[in-house]
Amino acid sequence: MCWNSASAALYRPWSSRLAAGVATPPFSTTGTEGIVTLPVDGHLSAGPLAVGQGHFAFVPRQDLDDGSPLPEDASALGYDELEPGADYRLVMSQANGLYRYDVGDVYRVVGAVGATPRLESLARAGFQSSFTGEKLTESDVHTAVMRVLGSERTGHPHLCSVPVRDTPPHYLVAVEWADVHGALNVQDTARRIDATLQEVNVEYAEKRRSGRLRPLQVLPLVPGAFGRIAERRFRQGAAGAQIKHHWLQKDSAFLDTARDLVRARPGT
Fold first, then answer.
1. What is the DSSP letter of 248?
2. How far is 74 from 99, CA to CA, in rounded Å?
3. Structurally, what CATH architecture does the domain formed by 138-261 represent?
């Protein structure tokens, strides 16, 4: 059993090879704040709302949601008012003392189990990057990189995209550059990822054509770099549960750390 939704869904090809032929039902959507969904059947990525675990309310997600706290007077819906296919931010109240807590997580209604909505976790609210309206997501980045490098080269993909504020701004993709990448030219790889990202995200393509975004860059890292970064954060006092890999990293300090682990390659 493992998480199969949100960014964890991007690991499915790898996990299916790791445990070939093994059924992997979705783990319950659970946090310190409380339990939200529970697996009850063979659905690949979603479970019904755990209606007996607290009081849950839902605020329709806005297209330009930047992750800021919801207004105190935000109008919320009950779980019996949700629309199939719609996305919502979760607000919960719990017996542990939380009252109308803005969790910051976004869920999509993907069906129902009886009268109970089946919810799939999408992402943290605002967990996208948008310098000029491109609204780049973790899925966009992952798809573009995997199309160019191929899963046979990356296996368990160790990569991360970082928005770089500049004039004009651009994106940098840090990739663990292992020997299996062969003689790939880093600059050419960056051009190919940038072109593929334009195919994946039409808004990114428009901003690139208009010059509001510079071309994407690739930062080749030594194998095991992301593990070293996580270990460094742990030694600095971060709790293990807080150290999570993000395909789209907004923390500028990450880039400073990553630059210490650059692997020099021919053609960089």
1. B
2. 14
3. 2-Layer Sandwich (3.30)
